[in-house]
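Issue 218. Parser rejects a valid record. Input:
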Amino acid sequence: MKKQILIFLVCGLLTFTIFFARAQEEDVEALPPEVSEEEIPMFEVEKATEAVAPQPSKEEISAPEVEVKPIEPSEAPAEKPAVEEPVKEVKESLPEKRVLPEEAIPEGKELLLKAYEVRRGDCLWEIAYRYYRDPFLWREIWKYNKYIQDPHWIFPGDDLIIPTYQKVEGAKEGVQEQEAKLEELKPGTEYERDIFIAPPDFEFDGCIAGAKEKKLITAYGDIVFIDLGKSQNVKPKTRYTIYREGEEVIHPKTGKVLGIMIEKIGVLEVTSDIEEDSSTAVIIDSRKAVEVGDSIKLQAKVEK
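Output the parser choked on:
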């Protein structure tokens, strides 16, 4: 019995000793670290740095005097004119031209240029077959129309130059014709064509001087004014074809203007209101919007 009591007391003493040791360790960990006299807390350092501003040196004090000096008008950089002037010059010096590619013309033949307007469903493959009977020659057409960035994408209304070759009459052996020529237009044929390449000396009779009503689009049924009248022998019901001048076709070697792309816009008919140098007309056919300044030419009968 005494042994059991003694064992119990020893176990209780050990338990109490262990519990006391753990409690003492927790108290030691909970205590904040002692601050030495030499160390300075962080907040005091921040306050000290904020309160004391760095003193500028003598060099820094004298620097603003040099920088504050006003810039004279002669020394001020002219930024706006330097940027705007070149842009204006580029816009004014870019006329609408289409330079032909340099190409050796086969002996005994001459280059004949034709014009074609792309319609819905067209592609260079089919156009090449239509003109050359060989669809694999579509690159020949693309070579003369480099404004088309992707030859697989052409759109209705695009103007194409179609190069063709024909034999030169009376050509001698070893003589090569280097000049490109335009398709010959017979009297009246230009009035049937939607687009063609006219020679540089192609003349118009007049132009559209204005419209009766201010609209965004002037088209079929609208009334316009032309710069032709009694002094030009204009009579009622006289019909004129409306044209629009496009790009100039330039020879690659000589730099000469071979022709001008001409597009047919519509047809107008003169009314009974005719003045000395002007007349009133009504648009009876239009495939595109008619604009002031579009050229007009008297219709001619097509020769059979």
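Fixed in the parser; the record now loads. The helical segments are 2-30, 42-51, 58-67, 79-92, 124-132, 138-143.
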